[in-house]
Amino acid sequence: MTRAVWCEMLKIINEIGGITLFILEVLKTWKCSLSKTFPLILEQISLVGFRSLTTVLFSGFFVGAILVIQFQLMLSQYDATSLLGGLNTSATIREIGPLIISFLLAGKVGAYTAAELGTMRVTEQIDAIRCLGTNPMEYLIVPRFVAIVVCSLLLLVFGLMVGIIGSMLIASILYNINTLQYLQSVPRFTDVWSITGGIFKSFVYGIIVASVCTYKGYNTSGGAKGVGIAVTQSAIYTNLFIVFANSFTSFLLESFQRFFTALTSGGIAL
Amino acid sequence: MIVFENIYKSFGSKKVLDGVSFTVQTGEILFILGKSGMGKSVTLKNLVGLLKPESGKVKVDQYTVNELQEDKLSEVRKICGMVFQHPALLDSLTNYQNVAFGLQEWTQDKARQRVLECLKLVHLDESILLKKPPEISYGMQKRVSIARTIAPGPRYLLFDEPTTALDPITTNAINDLILELSRTLKVTSLVVSHDMGCAMKIADRILVLDQGKILALGTVEEIKKHPAPLIQDFLSEALSPPAHLARDNDTSSVV
Amino acid sequence: MIAVFHIFAKTLMTCIKGPHRPREILNHMYLMGIGSLPIILVATAFAGMVFTLEIAFHMDTALHTVEMIPGFTGQFVLRELGIAIPALLLVAKVGASTAAEVGTMKVTEQIDALRLLQIDPIEYLVYPRFVASIIAVASLTIISIFVTLVCAISVAVLKYNFGFLEYLNSLTQFVSDKDLLCALVKGMVFGAVIPIISCYYGFYCKAGAEGVGNATTNSVVTSTILVIVLDFLLTFAFSMIL
Q1: What is the average pLDDT across C125-145?
Q2: Which of A194, A237, C44, C162 could disulfide-pair with C156, CB 3.0 to 4.6 Å?
Q3: What ranges do the domains of chain B cover?
Q4: Per CB distance under 8 Å, which residues of B are interface residues toward A?
Q5: Which of C166, C180, C220 is nearest to C197 (CA)?
Q6: What subunits touch chain A, counting only 3 or more CB pairs under 8 A?
Q7: Spatial contact of A246 and C111, defined as CB atoms under 8 Å apart
Q8: Measured between CA atoms, how close is B74 to chain A, in angstroms?
Q9: Pairing between strand B2-11 and B63-64?
Q10: Average pLDDT of span C19-24
Q11: String of b and e for B141-154 (b: at least 16 CB within 10 Å)?
């Protein structure tokens, strides 16, 4: 069993290496063709956003509902139900919101992008583009990459709004907690750091979805079967890396917050 | 002129090209034949820098292709146009945009003129220009992909299995088109195929690859007389009459 | 839509009537269960650690109390985190690969070949995956709950100086075997959903590489949404019971 875990970890490290190099290549290409790729990026943003908005809104609502029920169950045992609004909102903004939205993005947009690029690769469209004097990185990859990262942030805003509304709705329907009561405890748990944290996490997850899916799609081989494999691996690795990134970003943000608070309070003391 | 000098290419342990050397004369139609998996498409891809050989030189006019970096390869790709096995048209663009894809540095008017010219050369009607590739038939998509390739005005045309998966009538039409384009545009054509019949009809010379090596290289007449069993098999398949006709002539056996 | 119910109904009928193909079921259980185990272990370990850190941080800074940590984290892991994270990962792994596999079979005409050989594709393809998935996902859910708890406990013990036994004591006050049973039921429901949806998209896959890509994508998206909706319904139902 440990051997299997070790093999799996090696595979994952290998993937991370390849993807990092790919990201550097994408960024380099973007830097060299900022004006050329701008209209393509805008086009992709509208396509990606359009594709995923309804999914995010629909699922966001349900996730908000699930969380409020779970938290209510737990808090009622400590007789601390007044904290429901604050705790739920904070957890949504800091953790669950970015996580679930990224999972959805990974499925809807990520898998789609991997499939699209993979199909283009196996039907020789990418080779054809190269032969006709256009850089496929510039034409295909950069717009999709940037669009996914930008949409990740935009969708976070929508997803969080819907999630919080969903929670509030369920709280009032099931537990007779009105909006005012609900929002009372929010400031205690939510602050600038929570929001910054949520945005930062979304940004990181967006980069993960963008890079893994474009990388896998671009490097597909082997016909229809190859496309299937590429999409499957994108789906698996994006979700896995998002979970890893969750840990790292949480740790990073917490340390940064501690450091910053110590700095400012230390400064004041001085 | 295209020169292949001692090309070695393998994928893993499989040797696909094992010391291949030949020259393509300007203006000729050279067919590269062989069984599936014998390195025919790999030869073409080496010519445009989509693949690089392990050793040897690939020369197109004054360029040594395998030694060029990606940005310099665009010079080679301007003079070598490749028609892929699949039409490889971009589904999200109209047929017009597909044909004009290689003309991005041209002015709008010149590009439009050129697209219409190329469409005439491949015998397609203007009406398909506003449609997208999935909306036209596979045979038409093949023609559009040929139009796309000839639009920038390359000196060399490379065809990767142009008639695979086509019905006999469309196959003949594409073959005739290849011949016509070669004469009209005065280009050199390199065609990869496993259809000896096509080769017999339109090739100037035929090159047969087997196990990564050149089995034979010569004119159609020379190939017809070649003793190798593989070539004789290819020939008999190409030249034999359809089975049902043979059965009609001799009711006691099926050929 | 109707096709999905048709597939589901036929699969249930095969559960009752057979043929049961135990070897196929075991094979798929191995692929889905053992095959996904490393990823699930790693992912849930990380998720468990992060969640405990976050909750503890909240309790610490906002409430200045760490008493609630064991009960809170334990409950949340058992009721939600330990189930949702593996479920979503398995939707990706099992769902996508099943859709891709069945889609490729459709595109290469293997499904038609089965029909001509008088073999019902639903019986042959869907049923073994259905049974295997239910068992595999349920087992992986239980394993991942255990792993997540261990990691959560480690974080609490190492960072907030909880005693190990103290934590367990506090935990058992708030969770019961009913929670575990609910987790198992959720796992089984999610396990049932994934193969049905994936095989549906696989069967109706359009031609070519593009078709396979679309089938795989749609299967992941639909399964994810369905898992979230079912999670809500089950959570609601269980909250009434517990």
Answers
A1: 93
A2: C162
A3: 2-88+158-249
A4: 45, 48, 50, 74, 77-78, 80-82, 84-86, 88-90, 101-102, 104, 145, 148-149, 152
A5: C220
A6: B, C
A7: no
A8: 6
A9: unpaired
A10: 85
A11: bbbbbbbbbbbbeb
Dig out the tokens for B27 from the structure: 């203006």
Q: Does C217 touch chain A (CB under 8 A)?
A: yes
Element containing residue C154 per DSSP (H, E): helix C127-160
Residues of A with CB below 8 A from B152's CB?
132-133
Q: Do A134 and B104 touch (CB under 8 A)?
A: yes
Hey, are the CB atoms on A239 and C43 less than 8 Å from each other?
yes
Q: Give the span between the Cα atoms of C47 and C54, in whole angstroms.
A: 11
pLDDT band for B253, please (50, 70, 90 cuts): very low
ipTM higher than threshold 0.90? no
Structure tokens of B216?
A: 């034979």
A221: closest CA of chain B, how far (Å):
14
> For C49-100, how does the pLDDT look when each residue is reduced to its tens digit (9 = 90+)?
888 877 777 777 666 666 667 777 777 887 888 888 899 999 988 999 899 9
pLDDT at C185 over 90: yes
Share of chain C above pLDDT 70, in %: 96
Torsion on CA atoms B81, B87, B93, B94, rounded to nearest 10:
100
Q: Answer whether residue B199 shows pLDDT above 80.
A: yes
Q: Which residues are B8's β-sheet partners? A: B18, B55
May I ask the CATH class of domain B2-88+158-249? alpha beta
- Contact (Cβ atoms closer than 8 angstroms) between residue A240 and residue A12: yes
Please give the pLDDT value at position B255. 38
Q: How far is C42 from chain A (nearest CA, A)?
A: 8
